[in-house]
Amino acid sequence: MARHSGGQGWYGKVLGAAIGVALLAAGASMWAAQAEAVGGSSPKATASAAPGGGVKAVAVTIAHASDKGARGVNITIDDGPDPVWTPQVLDVLREYGVKATFCMVGTQAQAHPDLVKKVVAAGHRLCDHSVSHDTTMDKKSQAYQSQQILGAERMITEASGGVRPMYYRAPGGAFTPYSRTLAASRGMRPLGWNVDSKDFERPGTDAIVATVERELPGGPTLLFHDAGGDRAQTVEALRRILPRLKEQGYSFGFPVR
């Protein structure tokens, strides 16, 4: 999700819940070494999203494009899963036959594995959004970045029943060359966005819709949220935006890998 000043209390709680991830430091150092060795990952490689699938490196560049081409749109949903709002977002997506990419915070996935499984069962894709949503990750050590990325990968995979995240989105866009390389070595394509709907600020449903319509010509990947506070405006905005984009000839897809 985008950097912002609101909602820090909620993320403070998430950060507190993630303290135990420090135990992953030893394992992280091993993956750190691997990441440094695969800095030249092939853009053509892909990772399996199925239980038991092998891990293949993917491109380290930050993805924005849609696999549906020039008239494709990628819906991405950050910060959940949340027991109140994620089911409502899933209902709207199902109503309009749209698949999305859910960028999950590790501690949230661990707390709500039933919702992670529902997201997967509905045909959506998973994205690693770090353990505790620290938007200052780019200022932290490589060991810390490893703990955040690999810890969330493990939490999400376990919560889903074995389905691995296919992307990594840095909180607030706080990517580093190291974090991108590490994620790509684990088969998670770094994922950016083109349109920040600003729904996190709760500016009103009309404002969210207007932002998307104004900024969509700049690129296909749209950013929304299903956690971190009252997301009623997000749900209603999606209910308006999805059919409107379909009427305009857009197709809904996934970020390129």
TrEMBL record:
Pfam families: Polysacc_deac_1 (PF01522). InterPro entries: Glyco_hydro/deAcase_b/a-brl (IPR011330), NODB_dom (IPR002509), Polysacc_deacetylase_ArnD (IPR050248). Gene3D superfamilies: Glycoside hydrolase/deacetylase. PROSITE patterns: NODB (PS51677). Residues 71-253 form the NodB homology domain. CDD domains: CE4_NodB_like_6s_7s. It comes from the Bacteria. This is Polysaccharide deacetylase family protein.
